[in-house]
Design goal:
Layout (H helix, E strand, L loop, with lengths): L1 E5 L8 H13 L7 E5 L3 H17 L6 E4 L2 H8 L9 H18 L1
Length: 107
């Protein structure tokens, strides 16, 4: 299982990021039961993220189900069956914010 968050202000991936994503897809995604992508933001940008993601999944040699949602909280029902019993939504939201803070501190 994978949870990826594409923030509303994220730039398109550059060459290095695309190579990393391709390696991730080839080596890891093919072994997963589900990959969840949170396309934050609204309107055209979120639609574009979904369209690119769907196009890439069609081109992949493996068939991992990709699910697209608009908010991290919307990923919760998809994640819950794969998490330890008793895990709460607040834990996912807090972890997401901690990662955002850590990435923001580096950037």
């Amino acid at each position: 299982m994978s949870l990826s968050v594409v923030e509303a202000t994220s730039p398109p991936p550059d060459d290095v990021a695309r190579r990393i994503l391709a390696t991730f897809s080839d080596e890891i995604v093919s072994k997963m039961a589900v990959a969840i992508v949170v396309a934050e933001g609204g309107g055209f940008r979120a639609s574009l993220v979904r369209a690119v993601g769907i196009a890439l999944t069609v081109l992949m040699p493996h068939r991992v189900p990709f699910k697209f949602v608009s908010r991290v909280a919307d990923a919760w029902p998809l994640l819950l069956p794969h998490l330890p019993r008793g895990t709460e939504l607040s834990e996912l939201l807090n972890a997401t914010e901690e990662v955002r803070g850590a990435i923001g501190a580096k950037g």
